[in-house]
Amino acid sequence: MKFETKVIHAGVEPDPLTGAVMTPIYQTSTYKQDAPGVHKGYEYARTQNPTRDALEKNLAALENGYGASSFASGLAAMDAILKTLKSGDEIISTNDLYGGSYRQIKTIFEKLGIKSAFIDMTDPENLRSAITENTRLIWVETPTNPMLQIVDIEAICKIAGEKGIKVCVDNTFASPYLQTPLDLGADMVLHSATKYLGGHSDVVHGAVICKHEEDYEKIKFVQNASGAVPGPMDCFLILRGIKTLHLRVQRASENARAIAEFLRDHPKVEKVYYPGFEDHPGHDIAKKQMRGFGGMVSFDLGNNNEEAAMKVLAATHYFLLAESLGGVESLIGHPASMTHGSIPKEERLKTGLTDSLIRLSVGIENVEDLIGDLSRSLENI
Ligand SMILES: *Cc1c(COP(=O)(O)O)cnc(C)c1O
């Protein structure tokens, strides 16, 4: 099955009872048993739910994995992965990662005895020297937020594989339409399905997709034993969002390119971060491991001028000032004060995350309307 067919058909069968074409929302906590232990494969809804099953089968197919487990949020999914580790184990992560992922590693798991190191993996050789005999998991985010750094997944997996260390890739930014890390050697993929998979900014959801049965069984065990499961309505919404994933990501990517080009030529914009530009660091790797460059664009007005950034943010009409990304609507944000406010300024500035940096999650609206919106807002500075 090709991707565009998978999004619609994988894991989804007409309801056996009624023939309903769309997966029903099985809003039930328990299931009648014919005799103790004699049932139809469903006992209790933390453990199994048919709406969730359909979504998990669909997600496994999209990422070419053995199996998927879905969770109440992206961070709940990450929590399940980290709970497969034990005290004394070590994680090595990319240094430019989602703030909530960093916070979870540092504040929740560090005190449980799991050590962590955050390194620049844009040069995969940095990983080789960071690995210790206790390293059990490599955590990779690519492209990153908001600098859109690119990490070579295949090169990282090769180095980790030599030592038998598992690799998990947070594939939230790319979506499986543009990037399938399991095909590049990764063992696990994490999604904040809140973003592109759901695609309509109306639900918070997460998933882990495993390449191997043994990892899948471990995650499934934590899913049931810790219990951070999603409700059936949320599973339904993600499944529904996924049906148009390819169309949405295609259009968002086209719009993002046009907007990145507009911004690059604009006299008031100093720098544009967009992996589709040939001079973007990591462009060649992105070209090799992704099937497109996605809908995220960041740009810098220069001189660390926060006031100018605030003027632009305040003036857009279609680009809504909000956190999150990956929805049909375009969003605009100021990473220094919003998503990355907790990172010390000196640390931020080192990676180019200035006070004049603006991040866009480009939606699927008419691109001329979007460019017009940015053009008018830039006139304010
Ligand atoms: C949003 C996000 C997360 C966290 O997911 P939630 O669904 O908000 O819990 C993790 N990683 C990335 C890259 C994200 O953008």
Key descriptive features of the protein:
381 residues; alpha/beta; Aspartate Aminotransferase, domain 2; Aspartate Aminotransferase, domain 1; 2 domains; seven-stranded mixed β-sheet; 14 helices; globular; binds pyridoxal-5'-phosphate
Write a brief structural summary.
This protein has helices at about 5-10, 50-60, 75-80, 100-110, 125-130, 155-160, 175-180, 215-225, 230-240, 245-265, 285-290, 305-315, 345-350, 365-380, and strands at about 65-70, 90-95, 115-120, 135-140, 165-170, 190, 205-210, 270-275, 295-300, 320, 330-335, 355-360. The protein is of the alpha/beta class.
Strand order of the largest sheet: 1-7-6-5-4-2-3
Distance between the termini: 50 Å
Please identify the top-level CATH class of the largest domain.
Answer: Alpha Beta
Number of strands: 12
Structural class: alpha/beta
Mean pLDDT: 97
Please indicate the count of domains.
2
Query: What is the CATH fold-level name of the largest domain?
Result: Aspartate Aminotransferase, domain 2
In angstroms, what is the radius of gyration?
A: 21 Å
Q: Low-confidence runs (pLDDT<50, min 5 residues)?
A: none
